[in-house]
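Our consortium's second objective concerns turning raw sequence data into structural hypotheses that experimental partners can test. To show how far this objective has progressed, the report includes one record in full. It was chosen at random from the queue rather than selected for favorable results. The single chain below, 189 residues long, was entered without modification.
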Amino acid sequence: MNFQKPLSALFPGTSGRLLTALVEHHTADAARTLTLDELSKDAAVTATQLEAALFRLGLLGLIAPRRKGEAVHLVSGHIAWGALHQLRDLRGRVIDAVREQAETHLHPAPDYLALNGAVIEGTASHPADVLELIVVPPATAPADWERGVGALVTKLSRDLGNVVVHRGAHDAQEAEAMGGKNAVRLLPL
């Protein structure tokens, strides 16, 4: 999965580039009118491609009705904008997914769990870009506890569309050194 430009990854070509530009505009100033030249430049889309894509977005109600060549007014309260914003920034969703899956697969809970790598940094642009789990097993871990870590890694790799790897540490201090300053700690809270 491309976490750097997820809308373009999910909606290839003109549609993805246009949606990315419109979501960025919606975030910055949804009430401001967009000229076609500005939108064409922001989305890296020709005027001909732009009109066809805007027509489809108009049918969905994301933009106000307009004639060919007219400026674009977003329907800022449209229900789809919230979902598009979530797709644009998947970092929080990844954190929530890892937390939920860790609760399912890791019993007892690890003493320490952190995330690191291109996926969590939001710079992943290819399926080979990594999400790294840094884990300190609980002191009372049963003999088969690592099997749960393997199941978690497999499930997350499939669900995220990126490689997930696991690095084990003996204690929180070693884990923090492994992750560095960019790691996102999930446990302990």
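The partners drew two points from this record. Residues 105 and 152 are 6 Å apart (CA to CA). The chain has two domains: 6-88, 91-187. Both points have been shared with the crystallography group to help prioritize constructs.
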